[in-house]
Every structure is written in structure tokens, then in C-alpha cells.
Amino acid sequence: MIALGVVLVLVIGGVIFRKELMVLAFDTLLEDTVKDTLDKSYQPIAQDNKGGGEEELSVAELSKKPFSVLLLGTDQRDNEIARTDSIIYSVVRPADNKVLLVSIPRDSYVKMVGTPTIKGTRSKTKINAAYAYGGAQMSVDTVEALLDHDVDYYATINFNGLKDVVNAMGGVELPITERIENKQADHEKFTIEPNKPIYDGTEALNFVRYREDSDFKRTERHRIFLKQMLNRMKSVENIAKIPELIGIAGQNFKTNMTSDFMLSLAKTVILSDSTPSISSHMLQGEGVSRDAWYYELDDDDLEETINSIGKWLDPSSTAADLVVDDTDAGGDSHTDQEGQPAGDVGQ
């Protein structure tokens, strides 16, 4: 009877006090063990003198102020030049538990802004060249110029660390309803079967890397993966694994967010009653062929997106102000091109 009573307390208490248990796990297991690891990932940029990464906000302050984060996903292997295969400008609104993800196609033909660190920099080329030319700093400068809004923080994640992180979490749910298979001769061969209840790290990595349908669908998969990972992380068992997960990420993660900022933000998410509502949009345009294949952004869509970002960054905006066109490819059948012109390191 005593054993049965303990079980009932644990089960019922686990349901009723789930949030409290999660916060307890966070406080007892994470803050002391994770902070040192996160400090090693801290890499400031020039933007931080505007009140960005050096700022440490409390949970109370986080609940009031929207902020932007530029998410840069790289696929660097060995000693090759790094390029950003995923570029997402995000706006986080902790007060109403909402996140906006604006995908910028990596082939977008834009003006390069900032000081390059290598020779041969083009004045206008694919936006993913910015990282190859001048790292996170030039990516931030270029995106700020394109979207006419500041980037408060950036986070660079190398996809090579993704596989082990997903495996440590016990896999991730992905809405795959049709078989995904790499068939092109010059692509690494893999197959992902549909309708599985859970997908392992290798399958998740292939899911975000797959590019044989279109760049539109690829960036959509990146956003889907982010949403599913967030859902997966909100379980008590995975919160307890965060020290292990951050240790696995290691050198695959760089940001100008301080450890105190990230830990406060994580607790804000845990304390919320629901998973953040995520809205997404991909910049629209069409493929054009010049010396290489580029994506020419649509001026009207770009202007509308800039206006929408402004509303998301405004703390006084209402729910009606935050409605976005959750669109990806539209009617464009632009597909990814593998050819790389001489000297364009950002292809």
C-alpha cells in the first residue's frame, strides 16, 4: 500500500505539477552545469555595442521585450570553406509566446555588406557567400541591410552536430508522408522512409540536407525541424539531458548571446503553459541565370516582409498585426543548382 501510494503521488503529481517539476529540473540540473559550456560558445561581434549580446536580461525583462535572432545553419566538412545552407531571421516575442521565422533562400542575389576577411569578394552575389567572405559578422551586416532591421543576436549551428543531438534526445518526430531519396549521381545516397513514429539523428540530418526537390521545400524542412525539436525539448526527461546535449554540440555552436541570457530565455519557455506559436514565411522571388543560378527576390514581397518584421518587433502590436503569409514556394518551381562559378566561394 505504501508503494502504491508513492506511485500515485508520483504519477498524479507529475501530471498536475509538471511545470514545477520542469523548473526544478532546470534549476537543479542545468544552471550550474551548463553555464560553463555555454560560455565557451560565446563569440561577440561588432553589433554587440548596440545593446545586443552583452546585455543580460532577467526573466521578467525577457517577458516584455521582443528581440531578433539570425539563425545560420552551416554544413562545413573537414577544411572546406563554410557556407550557410540555412539563413533564418527570427523574431521572438516572449510576452505572448510567439516566434516568427523568415527564411532567406541561400541563392538570393543581394548586395554584400561589411568587411570581408578573404580576397575575391563580390559586391553582389548569393547571400550564403557572406558567411564565407566574412563569417557571422558579414552575414549579420548583409541581412540587416537586406531586411532593414537590426539583428540583436546571431547563432551559428553546424549541421554536423545535429545527428548526435537528435540521437541523445531519443529521436524526433517528423511529418514525412512520402519517401525521400537522394538520386542524383553527385549526391550522397540516402533514403528516408515515410510515416515512422520517430526518426533518428541520421534521418533527421538527411531530412534537413535533402535538396533534390527545391530550395523552397528545403528551407521549409528546416523550419519544420526547428518546431519539432522545440516540442521534443519540452519534456522533463529531455530537459535533464540538456547538459549532455550542449556538450555534444560543442564547437558546432557559436553565438553572441551570453549564457545568462540563454538560461533566462530557456526558463521563460519552460514556465509558459504551451509550446510557442511559430509563424513562418519565405522570401519570394524567381530563379534567374547569369554567370550562375541566382534567386531574384520580389521587391513587393520583400517590402511586405520588412513591414511585418517591424510589427513583430513592436511590443505594442496586437495578434491581428502579427498575421503573416505562411507561404513557401508559391508557384515557382525553382530547384537548387550545384554548379559553382570560379571564385564564388559562397555557392
Explain what this protein looks like in three dimensions.
With 347 residues, the chain is α+β, with helices and mostly antiparallel strands. It has a single domain, classed as LCP protein (Aminopeptidase), CATH 3.40.630. Helix content is 39%, strand content 17%. It has helices at 2-16, 18-29, 31-41, 59-62, 129-147, 162-168, 201-209, 215-233, 236-239, 242-249, 259-271, 299-313, and strands spanning 67-74, 84-93, 98-103, 109-111, 124-126, 153-158, 180-181, 191-192, 253-255, 277-282, 285-289, 293-297. The strands form 4 sheets. A 6-stranded mixed β-sheet has the order 9-6-1-2-3-10, with helices on both faces. The protein has a two-stranded antiparallel sheet with strand order 4-5. The chain has a two-stranded antiparallel sheet with strand order 7-8. Strand 2 and strand 3 (98-103) form a beta hairpin. Helix 2 crosses helix 3 (31-41) and helix 7 (201-209) packs antiparallel against helix 8 (215-233). The longest helix has 19 residues, at 129-147. The termini are far apart. The relative contact order is 0.18.
List keywords for this structure.
347 residues, alpha+beta, Aminopeptidase, six-stranded mixed β-sheet, two-stranded antiparallel sheet, 12 strands, 17% strand, globular, disordered C terminus
